[in-house]
């Protein structure tokens, strides 16, 4: 038995609204696939580099996603040279793939970083208290910094990535029928199109 195609999948506006709802759920629901998207950046030698990040916030009006990372990380440096990035989510339950692209602005030690830090849990903050830069070679596995220590040092390592989305590609693959849609924005001009799956 194949499930019928959800009705919003025959309407571009509804499809886009559904995408934003999923991102919104991803922020608040740790079990949602949209909670842990894959972010791809470009290394200096042209190699695409992807990794999982936690989706921390979303602003639908400005089409902005918020992610947190260590300013000593590889991605932080890569984004300085190549600020465009793409983001991928596959939700197996809904059979939906979302690919988004956009420009990333990096924020550290400013009002945006401060607000994000103030709203972070102690367990999240502790990740930034490590003396060694993420990715440093170590002779053996090292212990994670205990929660609640070195908050001031940790804050210096804390960075916010604001990704302004200008392209979303949506794919729904199911036995009942496939759907593929493309949404793009250029300034205030928005386009929405169906694509062959
Ligand atoms: C479930 C999960 C969630 C993660 N969340 C984050 C995150 O929010 N921020 C982050 O910088 N790294 C996060 N990581 C670690 C990254 O995937 C990556 O290993 C790390 O940021 C180093 O990436 P880079 O060397 O490409 O900069 C997460 C990893 C997993 C498996």
Q: Can you describe what's shown?
A:
By secondary structure, the chain is α+β, with helices and mostly antiparallel strands. The chain is built from 5 helices and 9 strands; from the N terminus they run H-E-E-E-E-H-E-E-H-H-H-E-E-E. Strands 1, 2, 3, 4, 5, 6, 7, 8 and 9 form a 9-stranded antiparallel beta sheet that branches. The longest helix has 17 residues, at 12-28. The relative contact order is 0.18. The mean pLDDT is 94. Residues 36, 49, 51-54, 68-70, 73-75, 134-135 line the site of flavin mononucleotide.
What structural keywords apply?
197 residues, alpha+beta, nine-stranded antiparallel β-sheet, 9 strands, binds flavin mononucleotide
Q: What can be said about the biggest beta sheet? A: 9 strands, antiparallel
Query: How large, in whole angstroms, is the Cα Rg?
Result: 18 Å
Series of secondary-structure elements, N-terminal to C-terminal: HEEEEHEEHHHEEE
Residue-averaged pLDDT, rounded?
Answer: 94
Briefly say what this structure is.
The chain has 197 residues and is of the alpha+beta class. 22% of the residues lie in helices and 37% in strands. It has helices at residues 12-28, 74-81, 111-118, 122-126, 151-156, and strands spanning 38-42, 48-52, 55-59, 64-70, 84-91, 96-107, 158-172, 179-186, 189-195.
């Amino acid at each position: 038995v194949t499930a019928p195609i959800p009705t919003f999948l025959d309407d571009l506006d509804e499809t886009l609204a559904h995408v934003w709802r999923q991102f919104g759920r991803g922020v608040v629901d740790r079990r949602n696939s949209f909670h842990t998207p894959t972010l791809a950046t470009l290394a200096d030698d042209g190699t695409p580099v992807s990794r999982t990040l936690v989706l921390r916030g979303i602003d639908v009006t400005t089409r902005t996603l918020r992610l947190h990372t260590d300013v000593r990380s590889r991605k932080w440096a890569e984004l300085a040279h190549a600020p465009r990035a793409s983001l991928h989510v596959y939700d197996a339950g809904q059979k939906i793939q979302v690919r988004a692209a956009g420009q990333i602005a990096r924020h550290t030690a400013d009002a945006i970083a401060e607000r994000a830090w103030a709203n972070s849990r102690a367990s999240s903050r502790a990740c930034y208290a490590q003396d060694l830069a993420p990715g440093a070679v170590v002779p053996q596995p090292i212990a994670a910094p205990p929660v609640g220590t070195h908050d001031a040092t940790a804050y210096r390592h804390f960075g916010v990535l604001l990704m302004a989305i200008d392209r979303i590609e949506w794919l729904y693959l199911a036995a009942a029928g496939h759907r593929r849609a493309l949404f793009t924005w250029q300034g205030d001009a928005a386009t929405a199109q169906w694509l062959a799956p």
